[in-house]
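Hi support team,

I submitted a single chain yesterday and got back a structure, but I'm not sure I'm reading the token output correctly. Could someone confirm the output below corresponds to the sequence I sent? I've pasted both exactly as they appear in my results page.

Thanks,
R.
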Amino acid sequence: MVSKRVRSVSESATMRIAGLASELQRKGVDVISFSLGEPDFITPPHICEAAKDALDAGETHYTPSAGIPELREEIALKLQRENNLQVKPSEIIVTPGAKQAIFEAVMSVVDDGDEVILFDPAWVSYDACVRLAGGRSVWVPTDPDDGFKPENLAEHITAKTRLIIVNTPCNPTGAVYDNQVLREISELALDHNLLVLSDEIYEKVIYGREHESLASFDGMEERTITVNGFSKAYAMT
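Hi R., thanks for writing in. Yes, this is the structure output for that exact sequence:
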């Protein structure tokens, strides 16, 4: 009864394990779950208060499809201040979560038969998004002894390659790509006229170095879709 696209996608391992952990916890079993990327602190009080104030003010109705203008303006300022990205509010789209943004981005740029490069291992939902868009995931091995850097990335690029998905800091490995790796990715994207989806949702979960956004590299602003959000930094999952 369901489409071939849906049948091509398997159950999320993350959600399956999370559900199993929750079921065991309800039975009184002491479980440490390594499934969901869930912050270990509560949402900051000022955010909760702002949400309550918005509800009390009646802000419960439709918003512009791209997001509340004031929010997009603040996001643009944040990206300019912290990520060295000179973006306009009109270039920002607010979605109900980063996962939705990734799905919409992939659906917007990937056609049937297009190839999308993923670094192995990768977050489980990237491949599902690619499959639903009619594309094919091309897995690039990474070296765990060298910070999970992608190996021989250029050799995996073909005439069918449309998109590279980069996730740094990375789920599940925790790898943080340095300037050299990001520069190599950007140069390949420019040389082969590729798009890059840069998933930066874990940018605040980083230690000992500064986060760098791929779109800040020369020539990358117009070919990079930067995905970020509030869930990991502010416990708003």
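A quick pointer for reading it: The two ends are 32 Å apart (CA to CA). Let us know if anything else looks off.

Best,
Support desk
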